[in-house]
Amino acid sequence: MTVSRRAFALGSAALAAVAALPAHAQSGLSAEDRAVLARAQTYLQGLTSAQGTFVETSGAQRREGRFYLQRPGKMRFEYTNPAGLLVVSDGSNVKRYDPRLNVFRQVPLSQTPLSTFLARTVRLDQGVRIDRVTRMDSGAFAITARDRNRPNDGSVVLAFAGDPIRLQEWTIVDAQGGRTRTQLTTLRPASGLSPSLFQLRDPTRRPRRN
Question: 154, 174 in Cβ contact below 8 A?
Fold first, then answer.
């Protein structure tokens, strides 16, 4: 089954793009810009296990929920509004279940942008194009990036702030210009996350009868 990249962008794809920010591989950037990229990559490499809450807006739609992260390979976005919507990476596949439509889809993790961010070592020396680095007097900064091999697929804008820095939000702009903004209302390190958080069986499949 073919699944659009946007279907798996809900609450997650932008993180993969941030994780692929190789400061030394970007041309046309100032020394200050490259330093900003290095800070972002170092921060994300250290984000090995975390949980938090998010608010996602796209046009007139507003979604919210909780997320869990455990590298390598695992992530869960659990929506409370709309209730029941799930996006889960179990280390091998990324799965999405929408109970309102009773639709379950999955793709190999290796075929999604998440594979970069969820790798044991967050590093990619090529494949990402940095369009813009915006630095603010407060120390906050934003990074606009896109897939170098598929630049027309859209872009992602990632915003960091704080001291020490923290990922605050991201905005995904798709190929048609549609914008999906995800704000991390809380983000904190987590330990001892249950393995069941990263498991999702197909709820639409009925058991076979003998």
Answer: yes
Distance, CA of 25 to CA of 92 (rounded, Å): 29
- Could you list the pLDDT tens digit for every one of the 210 residues in the chain? 333 444 444 444 444 444 444 444 455 788 888 888 888 888 878 888 999 999 999 888 899 999 999 988 898 999 998 888 999 999 999 899 999 999 999 988 877 656 666 777 655 344 567 888 899 989 899 988 776 666 777 777 889 998 888 889 888 887 788 888 889 999 998 989 999 999 999 988 876 665
Give the residue from 154, 104, 101, 110 showing the smallest Cα distance to 1: 104
pTM for the full model? 0.75
Segments in the chain forming alpha helices (H)? 13-19, 31-45, 114-117
